[in-house]
Records
---
Amino acid sequence: LQPKFIDFVNRSSGGMSGISRKRFKEDDFINASINYLDISEQRRISQRLSLNKETLGSLSSETDLQSSLLRNLRQSILQEAIEGKLTGTWRKKNPVRKGDPEYDAAALLENIKIEKQKMIAKGKIRKDKPLAQIKSEEVPFVLPAGWVCIRLGDILRISSGDGLIAKDMSKIGTIPVFGGNGINGYHDKSNVNKPTIVIGRVGALCGSIHLTPSQAWVTDN
């Protein structure tokens, strides 16, 4: 069809106010010659297109199936990890050593509490309200030896970063500036001095998660 289109354009004429505006006359269409396929050839093309459509449909269905299986596999692996089933063999070889934070979660949690108390005493963080005790019916499965069930707020605290717009960033800075979507510039100062989990709270990628290096500037996004 493209050569025929070019032929029509070449045979058209007209112009208006310096702007090229082509016109086609009725005879240009009526007298034009085109390639016409006999009915058997049309049927063969139709059949081929139909087969291609079925093939594409099958491929699409197979892709959807594989995506679904992959999602289920990820969920299964995550569930087994949460229940400690992925490390069962390792834990048999490395039984819980009471009081050792590397093996005993209760000891690790106690260390975290001591560290938080020190930070509160120095005025680095505020004292949080005590969280509700976890009831036995809230624990969804039998915990492996050395594990404990806690509130997420027992081991982390969430706070907003500090505002920093692009024009205020240092042109020669090398410290990454994290916004809601990740690194969006560099600065010569930092407001975090250890690897920090950053969660985007606004924008199209709200909820996206990043891990900063030891020094970074985290904005209020």
Note: The longest helix spans residues 39-82.
---
Amino acid sequence: EIQGWNCCGASSAHALSHRLALTLPARNLALAQQAGGDLVIPCAACYSRMKGAEHVLRSNPEARAEIQADVGFEYNGQVRIRPLLAILYEDFGPDRIAAETRRPLSGLRVVPYYGCLLVRPPRVAEFDNPDDPHVMSGLLRAAGAEVMPWSHATDCCGAGLSLPRSDVVYRLVGRLAERAREAGADALVTACPLCQVNLEMRQPSAPRLPAFYFTELLGLAFDLPEASRWWPKHLIDPRPLLRSHNLAA
């Protein structure tokens, strides 16, 4: 974890101040550049803000000079900004995930949900296929889950409006849950904690589908002993579903 990190401004700063929306993530990038190594981000919204700032630093010399002056660093372009999905898929790969699996997720039918920020806009995000993403599916299949085909993996869940416009969010999340059920899924799997809480908090009607962060299911497949402590923290209890597949006590 980088020392002294600050909020990247996701969900709010870019709606209030364009300059602040660039300098907040740029300060984190400066700290990561000082520490060395890749900058790994487990949140799609944070990833989007960080990659947006990086894109401006790379492509706009005038804006780069302003950001560097505000933050007090010289951007060198050496830090790779990567989502956590990329680390597991590119650096380890599905074969390694399968080899580490001790408790296959057999029979668990899921749909992968990326949300609207992780792969778009493609020239900025530079991750996976924006029209037909496959990375999360590859990891989940390697852990034994049955990944159901659906075409809503990159639809918006409205997480940024969850508090001020819950009426809009209930409609968006309700549509996603309905499409997931139509696809035959037992649960949704996200790569963003903000999307995860939104999908569980704003589902309007039963039967409600649990939403997992993808590392939860990988940890379960790896038979990590602490997995049993994760499930009570969900807003939609996943234990009945997991027990039906002999995946939870």
Note: Strands lie at 39-41, 81-83, 109-113, 146-147, 187-190, 211-213.
---
Amino acid sequence: MSRATQSELLEQRIAENAASQEIDLATWIFERVLVQRGGQVLELCCGTGGQTLPLLDRVGDDGRVVALDCSAAALNTLASKAGAGRKSLACVEGRLEDFPASLRQAGVQQDGFDLIFCAYGLYYSPDAQRTLREARSKLKTDGRIVVVGPFGPNNKPLFDLVRASGVTIAEPVVFSSESFMLQTVLPWAARNFESTAVHTMVNPVRWATPERVVNYWQNTTFYDSAKRADFERLVRSHFAEHPAFVNEKWVMLAEMSHE
């Protein structure tokens, strides 16, 4: 968990994926999720702003994005990216398990949201269904919840290489990467909303050098420094036979509504 929330590690992971991914994740998301100008949006687990900045652009000066994250450093990075004094952005430090209390303490909007959005972070909640219930209570009658996350054989090429180097990937990491969207998010959505629109994609990430692969891994939640030499040896062996290492990001977007 500590590695998951360190903003410098997050920035490195995002940079390695963004530089080498075939499909831009934020573009893919917001081609499918309508964000109205003037809308009121709550983003949970905003991180350093990969989706927050597109949300701000879409709501415009008449709207507002309340961006919540447990990392003060990540929020500072986001605020810097967004520009000082941007009135449509409110940054709130808080955790998923008690985010309503964090909103109250920060004195920002607590309900009446048009959209509650969370990408690659809901699985960090100790009780994701409670977090979803609390999110639902903060919506307008016609509001929506959108959750984006990995599923299925996500990261399989990289996981296979990591395991071959002798690393045991922790079960919570595997569950969040492969099963969380399927076993937690979709069943809850079906029980609590009239409609759930599901979009999926497979996004190849092509790393052109061994150093790029190692850099990504060393910034993940499943890095093991004791196995680094074995991992680097396997990566070099791969590049001796192939021009690139291709990882696969399996992405699911679930949009819940009463329409």
Note: The mean pLDDT is 93.
